[in-house]
Specification:
It contains 18 helices and two strands. By secondary structure, the protein is mainly α.
């Protein structure tokens, strides 16, 4: 389309379409902008839970919702569907991200991966120990996994607000750290937050995993069979006693990382295919009338799809709904905490809240910075180019933003103790706000602007 004067008009979505981002850049950009949406949803949930809409808000979340046919039905509250169902999509995307990072990303090179791995281990171990110091026994002890988690969307969103005051390597380091952190949280949920096992359902889950592995080894590259078996795996995990969202991680690791078509072979064939499309177009430019042109374009589209790895395609397609739909809905459903301002001081000094706040704010800082410092001093690894320990301290503070995963673990640990769950969520929100603000201010005033890096835009999804 042309404007008056002969200049070609490019619609905004066309400009977005033409811009190419690497998988890591796309991941960072979407997580950063998702963090802003997450903040808005958390604030909305807090408002609803402390307004005249509070009763309707909680009533809506407890409404039952049933799927299936008679004899084969699943009936849960909307709240449970969000935490057990929608969050499985989030864990699936996390699994795809983790798999990519291990195979071709920041965790593929053992020497390069060592620093964020050690930082993540320190950032999980020290907060858990601090929490245990506040809650050494009884049912409050069950919350020890809460301060271990880092919310990657919130943390990246806060970090990206600093623009070119920080080097890009710092964002990359935080991504690698947070992904290892997510893996640690998954292991903790699977091993320590599973109360009882139903062996027949667990056997069905094992059988499905075997079928998924057979599809992968058999060269099946179409995502649909994997996704259908993934639904069966989710139901089996739900019935087994192991948290159903872990089906997302297991399914992600079964998705093939190799494409059906070899890129070199595809490149050798694409030239002749484009020539055939050109010849067909010259005969009849209207693609609706020209069946040959339509067929050739369709064949080219199929080839473009099959030259990409299924895991890569699914990560790209699901990252948007996960970042902009699943996690914001989770925030809306779980951040709605009734706040009694007259008793906030009593809540903060409660051992559960104190353990979470100290674990997230102080424990993450000590664990991440301390383990990095020891690893560098002992010569096991080095800091990434352009980073210094002022940057690592900033990441250590940002790591205390625990929101999504921390609330998720709190829901598991205190499922039978609603009062402790309320206190835990209050502690998580306060700690996450304190960690985010202190990390932002630390980096803003200590990090020198990096003129060589372009600003990290948070304008919108690409």
């Amino acid at each position: 389309m042309k404007k008056p004067g002969g200049k070609e008009y490019v619609a905004p979505w066309e400009a977005v379409f033409e811009r190419v981002l690497s998988p890591l850049e796309e991941f960072i950009h979407r997580q950063s902008t998702s963090g802003v949406l997450l903040m808005l949803c958390a604030a909305s949930a807090l408002y609803l839970a402390n307004s005249h809409w509070a009763e309707a808000y909680h009533h809506l979340l407890e409404l039952p919702f049933t799927v299936g046919i008679e004899g084969f039905q699943l009936s849960k509250s909307i709240h449970h569907w969000i935490n057990d169902g929608l969050m499985a999509i989030f864990f699936f995307v996390v699994g795809l991200e983790l798999k990519r990072e291990i195979f071709v990303g920041e965790l593929a090179d053992p020497k390069q991966a060592l620093l964020p791995i050690l930082a993540a281990i320190g950032g999980m171990l020290i907060p858990a120990l601090i929490y245990m110091g506040f809650n050494p026994q009884g049912h409050p002890f069950d919350g020890w996994g809460i301060p271990m988690a880092t919310d990657i969307a919130f943390a990246l969103g806060t970090l990206a607000l600093l623009g070119n005051r920080i080097p890009k390597n710092l964002l990359t380091f935080l991504v690698a750290l947070a992904i290892v952190d997510d893996l640690g949280a998954v292991v903790v949920i699977a091993v320590f937050y599973t109360e009882s096992l139903y062996l027949p359902a667990l056997a069905v889950a094992g059988l499905v995993l075997g079928l998924l592995a057979a599809l992968n080894r058999g060269g099946i590259r179409t995502p649909l069979p994997y996704l259908l078996l993934g639904v069966v795996l989710w139901v089996a995990m739900l019935k087994s006693g192991v948290h159903a969202t872990l089906a997302g991680i297991l399914l992600a690791f079964a998705i093939p990382m190799r494409p059906k078509y070899d890129p070199r072979r595809f490149l050798s064939q694409i030239g002749s295919m484009v020539e055939q499309i050109r010849e067909a177009y010259q005969r009849e430019p209207n693609i609706l009338k020209n069946h040959l042109l339509s067929d050739k374009v369709q064949a080219l589209g199929n080839g473009v799809s099959l030259v990409q790895a299924p895991a890569q395609v699914l990560e790209h397609k699901l990252h948007l709904p996960s970042a902009y739909l699943v996690i914001p809905i989770f925030a809306l459903a779980n951040a709605g905490i009734p706040v009694d301002w007259s008793s906030v001081s009593e809540v903060i000094v409660h051992p559960v809240a104190s353990g979470i706040i100290a674990g997230l704010v102080l424990g993450k800082l000590l664990g991440i910075v301390g383990f990095c410092w020891v690893a560098v001093k002992l010569g096991w690894t080095t800091l990434p180019a352009g980073l210094n320990f002022r940057h690592i301290i900033g990441v250590g503070l940002m790591g205390g933003i625990g929101f999504t995963m921390s609330i998720f673990v709190a829901e598991l640990g205190f499922a039978s103790h609603p009062q402790d769950l309320l206190i835990a969520k209050t502690g998580i929100l306060l700690a996450s706000a304190l960690a985010g603000i202190s990390g932002f201010l630390w980096l803003y005033f200590t990090a020198e602007p990096n003129a060589g890096d372009p600003p990290h835009s948070t304008a919108g999804p690409h």
